[in-house]
Amino acid sequence: MGGEPKYVVQPLGDQNRAAFHCGDKELDGYFLERASRDIREKIAAVFVLLTEEDKNSVFGYYTLSNQEIDAGELPSALTKKTGKYRKLPATLIGRLAVSKAHQGCKLGEFLLIDALKRALEATGSVMSFAVVVDAKGEQVIAFYEKYGFMRLSGTRLFLPMKTIEKTFPSINKTSELDPQGSSKT
Ligand SMILES: CC(C)(COP(=O)(O)OP(=O)(O)OC[C@H]1O[C@@H](n2cnc3c(N)ncnc32)[C@H](O)[C@@H]1OP(=O)(O)O)[C@@H](O)C(=O)NCCC(=O)NCCS
Fold first, then answer.
1. Probe ligand 1: pick from 48, 140, 145, max atoms within 8 Å of CB?
2. Which helix (H) or strand (E) holds 88?
3. Is the model's pLDDT at 121 over the cut of 50?
């Protein structure tokens, strides 16, 4: 009986969005008013943190989209093998938030790791050079830096996909083609 809840992350469905508050009006407003539209319009995928026991209450959420980053902004050590591309493909964590009542319990870390794994998994189908994030102000930058993110311009940070791949070597990148060219999936 009791014990630690088992957390799960899944695509946003018909959960109770109005009850979610993280302390940031923009992030709360986005989740309530725009998240579903962004899914419908194919602008962002939205994932929610739930418990096995209660799949209606949202403890946190994040969004993923495709982005381009300026190769010129990256450290030259990272781009010396990328050729002459001026733009590189990336995966954007557009928003990431944990409910106010549950902050400081490592759920932000849980969500971020889930997002990084998901971004890496997706490179089996659509390649991405890095994960980027626009931190909500200087105060949150330290949160991302803790997990190896490096600063680009302003409050934008990035983590190379090769670093993520080394961190999670067991991630099975789906849809790898076999030598005959047919998908394994
Ligand atoms: C920022 C946020 C996502 C962090 O989630 P959280 O669940 O509170 O953080 P966690 O408990 O997972 O913290 C993991 C680690 O990051 C650190 N950390 C958390 N928030 C931090 C912050 N704002 N700055 C620096 N470090 C932070 C914690 O101290 C912890 O470090 P430790 O392992 O050394 O103890 C959450 O506080 C939040 O939703 N804030 C409001 C919305 C927001 O600003 N979102 C960011 C959008 S870019």
1. 140
2. strand 87-98
3. yes
**What is the whole-number distance in angstroms between the Cα of residue 140 and the centre of ligand 1?**
7
Task: Compute the Cα dihedral for 175, 176, 181, 183 and give only its sign.
Answer: negative
Q: Strand runs (DSSP E) across 102-154, as ranges? A: 130-134, 150-151
What is the CA(5)–ligand 1 centre distance, in A? 20
CA angle 7, 14, 10 (to 5 degrees): 35
DSSP 8-class letter at 184: -
Pick from 61-75, 123-137, 166-180: least confident: 166-180
Alpha-carbon distance of 45 to 36, in angstroms, equals 9
Q: What is the CATH number of domain 7-167?
A: 3.40.630.30
